[in-house]
Design goal:
Elements lengths: L1 H27 L3 H7 L1 H6 L19
């Protein structure tokens, strides 16, 4: 019984630590409007012309 309690408390502490780290990262990083004005989002979302989706929206596999 003691082993199960130790495992559950360890799992609780690990989950709590992960939640705190995720929350801290969300609060620390700038929001999406700030990223858009800085030009970082547009640089990340830019794709080369050869990878652009055709007008009909159908993607054909590459041959060769």
């Amino acid at each position: 019984m003691k082993y199960e309690n130790l495992m559950l408390s360890g799992l609780f502490v690990a989950c709590l630590l992960v939640c705190i780290l995720v929350l801290g990262t969300m609060l620390k990083t700038p929001s999406s409007p700030q990223l858009a004005t800085a030009g970082i989002a547009s640089a990340l979302l830019a794709s080369p012309a050869q990878c652009a989706l055709p007008a009909d929206g159908v993607i054909c596999p590459r041959r060769g």
